[in-house]
Give the backbone structure.
Amino acid sequence: DIIHSDDTHAYFITTLNDKKGLIAPDKTEVLPLAYDDISALRVYNRFRERIPIRFQATLNGKTGIIDSIGGIILPFEFDYIKMNYEDNLEATKGDETGVYDFYGKVLVEPRRGALRAYPNNVFVNNYKGVYAFVDSTNEYLDTFRYDYLSQLSSNFFETKKHNLYGMRDSLGQNLFEPKYSKIKDYNGVFGAA
C-alpha cells in the first residue's frame, strides 16, 4: 500500500507473512515487518490545514500512534484509538477512555466509560449507560447525569432523564433540565412540549 504524505513523497506499507512494516519516502525503514496492522491518520485538520503525518499501528493486539520517523506518540497499550473531528485522539484501554492531542499530550485523563469529544473542548462520558458532561480538565460540568443524550445540531444536545427531555448547549451549559415530554426541531429552532 502507498500512503501519500504530500504530492511528492510517499510512505509504503509493506506486508510479508501477514506482518506489516512501514518504509519512508527516503526508503528507510520506519517500522519493521512485525505489526498486525498499520494505517495513516489524516494529514489535514478540520480547517484543511496540513498537520504532521501520524500512523496508527497494532502490535500483538495493542494499538499505538507513531510519527513519521517511528517516534512513539501514544504507546502500544490501547485496545482502540480513533481520531475525532476536533483532531484529537480518543484512546481506550479496558473500560477507560482518555483524550490526547496530536502530539500525545493528555487532554482528558482516562476515565471509566467512553468519552466523545464535541466542539469547545466539551466531552461526553458514557459509563454503563449513564451520560455526563466533562471538560478538558476531566471535571464534571455539573452533577446531573442523563439516561441518554444526542446531539441535535452543532450547538445543542438533547438530554433525557426518566423519560423527560432537556437541552444543553455545545459549551456544556444547561439550557433547561429534563422536564418536557419531547423536544422538536422546527428548522433549527427548537421547541419543547
Q: What stands out?
A: Residues 4-8 have pLDDT under 50 and may be disordered. The chain is about 0% helix and 60% strand. The radius of gyration is 20 Å. The CA atoms of residues 147 and 161 lie 5 Å apart.
